[in-house]
Amino acid sequence: MVKGANIGLAALSENIGSVVVSLGWSSPTGEGDADVSVLLLDADGKVRSDVDFCFYNNPVAGEGSVQLLGKTPTADGDEDRISFDLDAVPAEVDKVVVAASRYGGSRFGELDGLRLTLADSAGDGLVRFTVQDVDEVSALIFGELYRRAGEWKFRAVGQGYASGLAGLATDYGVDIDDDAEQSGAEAEGPTPDAVDSGPDAVERTATGPDALERPARVPAQSRDGGAADRAAAEPAAGPAGAGAPPAPAVPAPAASGPVPKPARRPRTAKKKVTLPRTARKSLADNDTWRTARLFPVSALKSDRERETRATSVVLSVMAQVPEFGRRLTAGFGAPAGRMETFTEVALAHGETPRRPDGVIRVERAGKLWTALVETKTNGNGLRADQVQAYMDIAARRGYEAVITLSNDVALEGSPLVDVRIDRRRKHKVALWHLSWAEVVHQAQMLIRHEGVGNAAHAWLLQELLQYLQHENSGCHGFQNMGAAWVPVRRGIDEETLCQGDARALEVIENWERLVRQVCLRLGGELGQKVLPVQRARRGSDPGARRTELADRLCEQGRLNAEIRIEGTPGVLGITADLRTGKLRTSIEIPAEGTGYPLARAKRLVRRLSDAPADLHIETLVDGCGAGPRGTLERLRPEPADLLPKDGAQITGFRLSLFKGMGNGRGSAETGFIRSVDDAVDRFHAQVLTHVEAPAL
Fold first, then answer.
1. For 527-580, how does the pLDDT look when each residue is reduced to its tens digit (9 = 90+)?
2. Comparison of pLDDT for 255 and 625, the residue scoring more
3. Which pTM value belongs to this model?
4. d(CA 243, CA 490)
5. In whole angstroms, what is the distance from residue 72 CA to residue 138 CA?
6. What is d(CA 48, CA 46) in angstroms, rounded to the nearest whole number?
7. Cβ-proximal residues to 484 (8 Å cutoff; 6+ apart), any chain
8. Which residues, at least 6 apart from 680, have a Cβ–Cβ distance to it below 8 Å?
9. CA dist list (Å): 372 to 17, 343, 359, 424, 434
10. End-to-end CA separation in angstroms for the chain
């Protein structure tokens, strides 16, 4: 679509009751990011109340009809997805505005490939809109969904706001607090009403649009040194004040005059329940006493028992905790409604009935949405014939989806199971995959950072986490680098691995799965966005990108990945050198700040006073030359050793830690997967926490 164009969704697909809108972008450095927001407007073009402003601290709006699903990596960068249950949008809402904003003085002109895509409930793409000419704006309206004669239509907008998220929100009637000091106090983070009261702990978390700095997602131990308030970092509101047209032009630079007021922000708040990070002291006599659990794992003996128990546990909690059930199904096109779940349902299929592991049903306004669930635990893989049979059954019965749930991680452009889809059928069935690691991630986000509706729901999610993370549950996520791992390592050692070897491609795919799982795990623990960075040409095919990486592995003998962690000044690099058996974790931080070069070096060494002594520090200089380097132990008494001898300009510093790499292909104590997890955790805890502030 082109800017200003509109189209009726009913003309594009029959499956538009639920749609998913994705906003995407990329950046040359891999560090660019933006936050998505949605505004539900009435006939007057205003929100009915502040709860109609859906953003990172209020991810569900419109009685559950709008939900932010979070980011997913793509070949072009990232995509931020939003689920819309159009049949459930309140009748008073005439228009839904889809926008995004940047913070800390960043502008959308620094990002590449700004785009919006819209897909129906079967996952088929319907609309694509590329946004251009948005250099000096920090907030951007991508598009809007609106009602016209009882039909939902989409309009491509592409309009920028120089006044940022606060200006955009004000224009659409979101209540803004003029008291800058009060806003700054609120930005410091939520104040727990009770931090040691067990599962009944209630944390006053800003879940409405009351704080644009996302306090609900900052872990307790990092709030003291959290990021600056993003709303305060936005430019002061320009001409786009209250009552202005919804899409103002970008204003010219203001002339010198009175100091503008600090940026304002919305002020409503809700109570959400989270669990305390520190457990209360146990009343047990000694460590041999085991806490009684709602979902015990001690009696599990076979894979079939694990699959049956895991399916029942997850589906039952999904039905009982609406926030959790909706979080897992919204991206699959499920509506926002009453959910019921079932296990071991017999469905006719030829001479022998089939028994999918589970069935999910959601009822909304008398209409049913149904998905069949096929579950695998431990290292068991999905069987193509089983999934194909469930796809055929779903198509005949008019069901909407088949969901597979296993320890594997799906990759873009690389389906876990190849199924045949009969294009002659009018009814389409969508095939979706969910990893156990993603289930754990969503549960952690809800009970540790974002909150749920009541204490009982928080306790249920905690019991679910205890079960899934138990060593006997079989739900441990990706845990095997595959059969090609040992031959590829041997071929690299012996220098016999040739480019084009299919085994190298298998290792690359499994490496990408492992990195994505590391991001899910770390993001759930921190309550922050953690995403893999994929540096590829826009529009490149994921398969071609992986083939190129496989050839590079054969040539260099190294696996490389980059992870972007929200709140850190750079990207975390991971290198697994299969020739030397070493893992390297590193980050490049800019040499910002004031003062002489020696003062900057001293500040860096002082900031890293609690970092490991074997931390390697390398000075990055302007141009292609290499700068001085050394270990922190040697540099502590002599920070001047970081200064280039030729007086070259310092552009930044590279911090690196090295450790031995596990040999086994699995997740055992001596395995490769465990060593990668340990390396990332150590680097984050002992290095990144000391350099989160960007200024040196």
1. 888 888 877 665 568 888 899 999 999 999 999 999 998 888 889 999 999 999
2. 625
3. 0.77
4. 68
5. 22
6. 6
7. 502, 503, 504, 506, 507
8. 518, 522, 563, 572, 574, 585
9. 19, 10, 5, 21, 13
10. 45
